[in-house]
Amino acid sequence: MAFREMLKHESAIPLTARLQDFVKKFPTQGLSREQAADRIHKFLSATQDWMLSQVLVFAAEADEAGQTNAAEGLEKFLLSRLHARLFSMEPSDLTEDETLRRRIDSFSWVGFKNLGVPPVDTSLLDLAVEQLHSLDKFKAPRDKMVCILNSCRVINDVLKRAIVASGASRPLSADDFLPLLIYSLILANPPRLHSNIEFVAAFRHPSRLVAEAGCTQKQRLESPSLRYA
Amino acid sequence: MSGQEGPFKIVILGEGRVGKTSLLRQFVSRTFSDQEASTQSAAYLDKILLLRGTQVQLSLWDTAGQERFHSLAPIYYRNADGALLVYDITDLESFRRVAKWVEELQVMGTTCVLAIVGNKSDLQSQAKVPKADAETYARSINARHSTASAKLGFGVDEAFGALAEDVLASRARAPGQTQTSSRRTRGALVVAEDDAAQPSRQKSGCCGGG
């Protein structure tokens, strides 16, 4: 069940009240990004524990996947509501965004040769570029992060095909990946890139920032014996 | 003793062509240069180790070896808990490059635990880097040294495993650093002189022993 649906359950009334109270009392100014993030993460950690143990509709989620979903839903709910107050919240953010945009724009002449990699069909990168643009369309840190991950997946896929097409048989490395990521970033020049990256880095809960969905799932599935030993 | 630790960020540094990616693949999926491996992410891999009853999650970052991307390296090693510095035993220049990485890490004030690995030990007959020299150097910077062959799978688990143990041990002695949130602090580079963050030579440092 979606988080929003679960919030409608009778047992979730105190949770809704707690969330609304936090949003209402959250200062509109006077906090640095770091201070704001600290306050939000403390609240989210405490609320998550309480929610999963005391709020019936969430406590009923016995398995790990259900609990993870609930925690994600909580983060998304809160950060979407605070987005307007937290996005680009530092005075310098607007200038930084503009500086970065111009900087990336000034690199539009960079080609595969400059990056020292064999060329790939740039139309294959359209999806990656699109995902990088979507970064600015979502409010929740996780949704923004998924855009970045998706663009990385596309790049991986393009590289994989290129290697297979060249007849080689070798694993992809950062030597392949980084140049193409840079190339895609120059192609995309995503709007408000600085603000978006800072937003994700600051407001995604630290426990979920390092190991991300998808990237990690496969390896976990491959080592069940280690995981549950 | 049981529980979970991490995720710890481990970054793999070294000159191009020394075998960083191959070591990583061999460690994570026990493959060397085959099709299956190329389906995985190119820059980031995840591995859970079982060390003394503790599940240790490692986030492993491959880095580009090309010199032209060198200026991007701090993005990778910033906030790293451990760095695996790789050289090719048949390439003296690649070993000298390790010392430059170490200098750079010290200048930037990173506190991460270091381990040096000489790859391509299967080419021992063509070795150009004297093992004794490498070991002496490693001791001088308080890092582990070992050799490995990503191709044959020798010494790979040992190298990563030992680094993970050292990271665990250093975290156990610096409890303030165990929180993920403290490592997330942006741009904050902690001073290198912090004794607690020095690599451990002890084998039994994990979580104070049990």
UniProtKB/TrEMBL annotation, chain A:
Gene3D superfamilies: 1.10.246.120, VPS9 domain. The lineage of its organism: Eukaryota, Sar, Alveolata, Dinophyceae, Suessiales. InterPro entries: VPS9, Vps9-like, VPS9_dom_sf. GO terms for cellular component: cytosol; endocytic vesicle. GO terms for molecular function: guanyl-nucleotide exchange factor activity; small GTPase binding. Transmembrane segments: none annotated. Residues 94-229 form the VPS9 domain. This is VPS9A protein. One of its GO terms (biological process) is vesicle-mediated transport. It comes from the Eukaryota. Signal peptide: none annotated.
UniProtKB/TrEMBL annotation, chain B:
It holds the Pfam family Ras. Residues 172-210 are annotated as: Disordered. InterPro entries: P-loop_NTPase, Small_GTP-bd, Small_GTPase. Keywords: Nucleotide-binding. GO terms for molecular function: GTP binding; GTPase activity. NCBIfam families: small_GTP. This is RAB21 protein. It comes from Symbiodinium pilosum (Dinoflagellate).
